[in-house]
Amino acid sequence: MNRNLLTRVLVGIVAAGSAIAAAADELNMRQGATAISHDVYGLHMFVLYICCVIGVVVFSAMGYSMYAHRRSLGAEPAQFHENTRLELLWTIIPLVILIWMAVPATTTLIKMYDTGGEDLLIEVRGYQWKWQYKYLDENHDNALSFFSSLSTSQDEIHGNVAKGEFYLLEVDNPLVIPTHKKVRFLITGNDVIHAFWVPDFGIKRDAVPGILNDVWAIVDEPGIYRGQCTELCGKDHGFMPIVVQAVEQSEFDTWYETKRVAYAEREKMASQTFTPDELMTLGEQVYAKTCVACHQVNGKGVPPVFPALDGSAVATGPRDEHIRRVYNGVSGTAMQAFGSQLNAAEIAAVVHYERHAWGNKADDVTQPVDVLNLVSAQ
Amino acid sequence: MSAVLEAHHDDHDHGPAKGITRWLFTTNHKDIGTLYLWFSFTMFLIGGCMALVIRAELFQPGLQFVDPAFFNQMTTNHGLIMVFGAIMPAMVGLANWLVPMMIGAPDMALPRLNNLSFWILPFAFSLLISTLFMEGGGPNFGWTFYAPLSTTYAPSTVTFFIFGVHMMGASSIMGSINIIATILNMRAPGMTLMKMPLFVWTWLITAYLLLAVMPVLAGVVTMMLFDVHFHTSFFNAAGGGDPVMFQHIFWFFGHPEVYIMILPAFGVVSQIIPTFARKPLFGYDSMVYAVASIAFLSFIVWAHHMFTVGMPLAGQLFFMYATMLIAVPTGVKVFNWVSTMWRGSMTFETPMLFSIAFVILFTIGGFSGLMLAMTPVDFQYQDTYFVVAHFHYVLVPGSLFGVIAAVYYWLPKWCGRMYDEAFGKLHFWLSFIGVNVTFFPQHFSGLAGMPRRVPDYALQFADFNMISSIGAYVFGFSQVLFLFIVIKTIRSGKPATARVWEGAHGLEWTVPSPAPYHTFTHPPVVTAAEAHS
Amino acid sequence: MASVRATPWKLLALVAGMFGFGFALVPLYGLLCDVTGLGGRTGGVYTYDPATVAIDDSRLVKVSFLTNTNDGMPWSFVAEVGALRVHPGELTQANFVVRNPTNKTMVAQAVPSLAPGTAAEYFHKTECFCFERQVLAPGEEMEMPMRFFVAPELPRSVESISLSYTLFDVTQLAADGLIASGA
Description:
The complex is a heterotrimer of chains A (about 375), B (about 525) and C (about 180).
Chain A: H1 2-27, H2 35-68, H3 84-112, E1 120-127, E2 130-135, E3 144-148, H4 154-157, E4 175-178, E5 182-189, E6 194-198, E7 203-207, E8 213-218, E9 223-228, E10 241-247, H5 249-269, H6 276-295, H7 313-316, H8 319-328, H9 344-356, H10 368-377
Parallel strand pairs in A: 1-5, 4-10
Antiparallel strand pairs in A: 1-2, 2-3, 5-8, 6-7, 9-10
Chain B: H1 2-10, H2 20-24, H3 29-57, H4 68-103, H5 111-130, H6 158-185, H7 198-229, H8 243-277, H9 284-297, H10 313-325, H11 327-341, H12 350-373, H13 375-381, H14 385-415, E1 417-418, H15 421-447, H16 462-492, E2 494-495
Antiparallel strand pairs in B: 1-2
Chain C: H1 2-36, E1 61-69, E2 76-79, E3 83-86, E4 92-99, E5 106-115, E6 123-128, E7 134-136, E8 141-150, E9 160-169, H2 171-175
Parallel strand pairs in C: 1-9
Antiparallel strand pairs in C: 1-3, 2-4, 4-8, 5-7, 5-9, 6-8
């Protein structure tokens, strides 16, 4: 009977403990997926506990004093106002505690600054407001690079439809890395300063234009790891997540080969000719991914910073000027040069789309070759 | 008491001018102090409304009220207005009212400069706030205005922002020169430096900090102005500049700035706790040395705001160790306040309540500061809501509670009437609960990974943000109660005695309440009872 | 009360001094970067003297090249090879190709940055396109050489170096005569 009760109590304690632990998981830093992130988590808990202990001591002393040394209880004020020994003591003890904290912090930091060789180099480049990943593969002339932007729909953001599980933390093209391999991320920015953060890897580093920063990670568990840009970078700072997919090496190799070939194909697409319908379909996709953040779904823009396309002089005027604007951008404005981000087919399609969507009814067809002609004639 | 009688006598000769000219042309430290305080309260309400716009948008995931571009203008202007428009002028207002009375001086050393340094501010802030209504919108690059977001990519109104900052800086510099000149030259005979009330000490050190760093801020915005309009390349990598250098110069100003906002609050609390514990301040000398060492350390820790920018290992370690070191003098101050309370005979009037809350909540902000100092862990905290929670804990229940405590404590001296204690306590409890409900959950959303300065967030942060928004509205509206209490006191409070508080010591309590327009035209006798000895 | 007059002037001198100090931070920061490799900044022209540089055959260091064009820069810019493996002390050449696809003459400036920052002070360039500005006529293409060596003193813990060049459009800055060529 007694033993039964004891078992029940024990089970109860364990259940309550794990419930608290589960809740604590949501309240606390994530342990993460790398050795470094575990070290960081341990360090975080270590400092947190020290702070809690000091807090309990100081606040108990205050609480007791506030209770016991009240005038309403008839407390008579003492008149002491210094005690050199005591003051020395509470200068030295914190100093010792600080040194005790600094030692593991230094060790972890040195580990993070490891400069040894790596298995894979990936350049991470922050744009307003998306990420570009370039796989630095010397065997293929660093040939694979792609943009990764938010895939959450505007309808979800504006509450027209229910928000999905990974609202704002999902992208069209995730960064894929192999597990058990040392991946070094070379981080830089294209326009303003962004910051690359994947909490589960314990890494965060600023993406500064013109400056190269490096961090690394070895991920053991396959999985999807999500992060966000963490440096204010303008209007859509809150809408440029990072999604990293860690897969086994063999799976990575397959993915990489497919992606690389597809990338080469996409580059080849530039020499094809499309029907107007194909152009509209492709153009709409490109528009939704690239242009919609500023010019809006309805093409009305957000004047005066982001002008309307619907009925605009550019989208209804001479076609070559329209292509040039998309390709070269407009200096001094938020309009970027998309020539380096989109290939000729995509630019042709999006220009065609903008000239025929909404109320725009141009009577021309834009083909990739038109873009190329224009670019080489520039 | 002869000084008191004479001061009162003088009152008949030079009363304040009548009408609006009294305020426009005044050179009286008390009038200017009042102007500063009302100005800062106005800015506090405007900045507070911006905070409520932010919290309304963050109440739920998704975009409901404002678009992201406007949201960024709100976060930027909320920060700028609270830092430069609310907290700093409030501290200067307190200094204007109290420093001359505490050291037995008839007025500030440079009364006309005093008038000028105040009247610049309304123009500076009108300029800043007017940009919100201009084409392209107001500043949207965060109160830290990192280049190139604030230069190459800035809205065209950035020029007005730059001039606004120049004007605020000029005002602060003039104010600080005045305060230092007053403290160094105008003390009553017998008021030696080590007898000055701690509030005066903290302001003396703060004023030196201001003089050292406001010119650097002026320098950095001047460089921005040149980059924006004259195509120089201070922060433009293309021309040989470096955007990271902006951050180094900015934080060389920015970190001492943090202490500029908190040190006078340390001083206020060090005046109030002894009064209501009816016991002298514990460790006066070590308090002075602690403030001085905090001020010194503030110059060598700036890069802890930029651990993620990519510094060499040695740099990271240096700034980590130096930052951790600040915990020592800060700890000394907290321990001394607790020791002052220990074995006292305490009562808990509103100023004391705000001061005790200050000590507890500022300490919590100090703990998160210590956690942030650890570079490897800071990588996880940097630019998340954990940082937002940290600096709001040191600024709201820190600096702001210091100002509110000071207002309750000295208001009877200023206007000769007592505030309503029941309302004061209600204001305290609403503020105390509001502040914690607002900012404590932000620690959790930060640890869970929510970046700061975002108008929308992932679903796992929803609960904490909702709680935080509710707290913000409670806190925000309880400040309207504060306004009501102050007005009620001025209009219909019960008359206050000269001493006001049973345990109060200091020269300001030797003059009648309300303090006459001119006090200490003849230097008072500094007795042991009214000065630290 | 003479000191009431003197104090403000002394304080004003402090203010002026600190304003100057803010600007002095610009060259001081540049100096700091050159000395510590802060920001991965590499140095200026270095003279290679084979007599004094011993080649370290015992190890190979991987040097990867990253090429980027900054926002609003339409040129194409690539490295001929993605990465090289070099012995410390060995003088090596890497080639980069730029092309101006626009219909106007443009001026570009390449800004180098190197990771890890600790390696920057051991990375020496004897010849680099980044030492001067590039001017390309419409449609012009150019091959640009960069000759470098890694000092044998490079700490053994550094096994891989990444060198990035970002190409900035400085046509306007050059026209205004406001920039010196970078290093």
